[in-house]
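Is this the right way to post structure tokens for a design question? Let me know if I should format differently. Anyway, here goes:
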């Protein structure tokens, strides 16, 4: 089963006709959206002046202004109280903004071990918290009456290969801690997985939700561990555990965090600032990607889905796939002087070989309203 989303506020649980879905959001439209955001930022004002006529493309995949409007009608006592761990990473701040719009500013708490920017700090509740400190994690859940826990704390693929002990601690022990605190306090728990949870022996194009995985990175291994532990806690104890296998996430607002797909974020920053980019993957390395707004919307709607509507604990999620060479060609359409060079990193390239390009299994679709 694959989670995918239409322009209306419904959850698409299974779908068919993959090519029609891809046509809704081609790489060019995604690029226009990211470039448009970056060109509008103050740091890029000089570049924007030199590039008149660039318009942010529209897409049926954007989150509509009234998405999930039924949530806004919930009473204060019925609204979830949400804790996001690892909240200062690529996804946490954006998801917090979306959740606060739905459920209220004070009902969503960001946490991290890093110091937040002034903008993030003043946008809503923030708590300094280390996921390896179980006692403090439990205190936060109790004192703030948390009902949903979204666990974004993780050491990503390339960084994890450079520091395996740290990856084991954060990605495995950290998951054990959130599983236990979620079970103890009856929370709805979301732990994202990754396309890196697949390995060289996994079936390709399409890749079903349930198949052989056997990843060869500590990041992938730890995510498979999280998937299986969450499934075990669901069947053994009834924990409401939920998991989506994220592809590479593309955004204009955040810096890369050490993942193999991060070149698709860095290329925009470097193209705007310097007009050139050095890629650490081969030109033809095709990887699955997703625009951040679509990822956040998918996560929100997945979290809102009634537990009885879910037939599994873990689902693939997909949007598009492309390689560095193709992305560079699209950047050239916006910045004609852009130059790309390739300095292949053996570790990242090895990781890229194991990643499934299209983790999708086309099927019939049905919706939950």
């Amino acid at each position: 089963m694959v989670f995918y989303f239409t322009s209306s506020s419904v959850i698409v649980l299974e779908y068919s006709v993959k090519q029609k879905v891809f046509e809704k959001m081609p790489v060019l439209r995604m690029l226009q959206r990211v470039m448009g955001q970056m060109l509008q930022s103050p740091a890029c004002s000089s570049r924007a002046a030199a590039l008149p006529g660039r318009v942010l493309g529209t897409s049926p995949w954007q989150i509509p202004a009234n998405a999930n409007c039924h949530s806004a009608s919930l009473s204060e006592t019925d609204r979830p109280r949400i804790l996001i761990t690892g909240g200062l990473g690529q996804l946490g701040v954006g998801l917090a903004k979306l959740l606060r719009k739905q459920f209220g500013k004070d009902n969503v708490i960001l946490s991290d071990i890093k110091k937040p920017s002034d903008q993030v700090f003043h946008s809503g509740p923030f708590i300094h918290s280390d996921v390896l400190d179980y006692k403090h994690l439990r205190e936060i859940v109790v004192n703030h009456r948390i009902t949903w826990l979204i666990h974004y704390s993780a050491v990503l693929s390339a960084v994890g290969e450079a520091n395996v002990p740290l990856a084991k601690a954060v990605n495995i022990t950290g998951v054990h801690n959130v599983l236990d605190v979620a079970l103890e306090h009856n929370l709805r728990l979301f732990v994202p997985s990754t396309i890196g949870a697949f390995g060289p022996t996994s079936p390709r194009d399409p890749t079903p939700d349930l198949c052989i995985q056997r990843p060869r990175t500590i990041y992938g291994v730890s995510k498979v561990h999280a998937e299986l532990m969450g499934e075990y806690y669901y069947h053994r104890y009834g924990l409401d555990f939920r998991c989506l296998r994220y592809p590479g996430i593309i955004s204009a607002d955040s810096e890369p965090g050490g993942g193999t797909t991060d070149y698709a974020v860095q290329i925009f920053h470097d193209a705007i600032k310097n007009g050139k980019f050095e890629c650490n993957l081969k030109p033809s390395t095709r990887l699955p990607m997703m625009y951040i707004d679509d990822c956040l919307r998918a996560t929100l709607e997945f979290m809102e889905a009634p537990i009885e509507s879910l037939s599994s604990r873990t689902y693939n999620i997909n949007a598009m796939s492309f390689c560095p060479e193709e992305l560079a060609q699209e950047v050239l359409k916006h910045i004609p002087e852009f130059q790309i060079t390739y300095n292949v990193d053996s570790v990242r390239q090895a990781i890229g070989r194991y990643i499934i390009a299209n983790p999708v299994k086309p099927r019939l679709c049905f919706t939950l309203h």
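Format looks fine. Someone answered above. Worth noting: The first strand starts at residue 2 and ends at 5. The CA atoms of residues 91 and 296 lie 7 Å apart.
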